[in-house]
Design goal:
Hypothetical Protein Ychn, Chain: A, five-stranded parallel beta sheet, 4 helices, 5 strands
């Protein structure tokens, strides 16, 4: 049974993303939404944690939230996959349950 984890808080303000990654199991997915998208930026202090987690967990970012914050897609880590709202719905249906990290 796999879980889709959604993280909406900036990893530079809370430890939510790191806690989420520590609880993820192989085959889970993490979707970074709202200010959580900052966790997908390349060249930050969290980049290595994301890179290590991406070997067992798929990591996504909501494209609309990236655009809303004026961040160019090139600033995202290559381990992070962008999805639109349709992709968000697909992720929900592909996983057995959804866990929101607020």
């Amino acid at each position: 049974m796999s879980t889709l984890h959604t993280v909406n808080k900036s990893p530079f303000e809370t430890q939510t993303l790191l806690s989420c990654l520590n609880h993820c199991k192989d085959g889970d997915a993490v979707l970074l939404i709202e200010d959580g998208i900052y966790g997908g930026l390349a060249g930050t202090g969290l980049s290595e944690a994301i890179r290590q987690s991406a070997s067992r967990v798929k990591i996504y970012v909501l494209n609309e939230d990236v655009k809303a914050r004026g961040i160019p897609a090139e600033r995202l880590m290559e381990e992070v996959t962008g999805v639109g709202y349709d992709g968000f719905v697909d992720l929900v249906t592909e996983h057995d349950r959804t866990q929101s990290w607020l």
